[in-house]
Amino acid sequence: MLTIIGCGNLNRSDDGVGVLIAQRIQRALQDTPLLNVRVYDCGTGGMEVMFQARGSTALIIIDASSTGSEPGAIYQVPGEVLEQLPTQGYSLHDFRWDHAIAAGRKIFGEDFPSEVTVYLIEAENLGLGLELSPSVAKAAEQVYAELMLKLQA
To answer: What is the model's pLDDT at position 56?
Structure first.
């Protein structure tokens, strides 16, 4: 079972890119469902990421990043590189998807995906707004196309 999760905040411009890609994949799969694929929009809820990933063999997370790199840059990173347990405990307010990967492995053991891939798209604008910047919209198209090819393989 493959689980794809889009993360982000749709009200903060480019931060919504992961959610928008996940929603687009959901729409595409309405016409041709794949029994071994689940797709979720988890917004900013790290705890939801952990629970939705449970029971999968593979997990793909899509989110925006803000590292100072070129806007629209796409990074495909193994989950184990990014996973980390929260330092302040398991507060829902501060529990992010990187915490969800580490905590999910610890809590669910073999019932948590062993293969985790994270797609990060460098944001240009994280201010209030509903539209993606052109560079991030272009990157979103690339990630969507790549994921759809993986699903069709």
So the answer is: 96
Domains of the chain by start residue, with CATH: 2-152 (3.40.50.1450)
pLDDT, tens only, 7-56: 999 999 999 999 999 999 999 999 889 999 999 999 888 888 999 999 99
Across the strands, what pairs with 58?
2, 115
What is the pTM assigned to this prediction? 0.92
- Helix or strand run (H / E) with residue 5: strand 2-7
Q: Torsions phi, psi of 8, nearest 5?
A: 135, 180
Is the distance from CB of 3 to CB of 56 less than 8 angstroms?
yes
Q: How far is CA 40 from the centre of its chain?
A: 9
> Alpha-carbon distance 17 to 10, whole Å?
8
CA 153/CA 148 separation, integer angstroms: 9
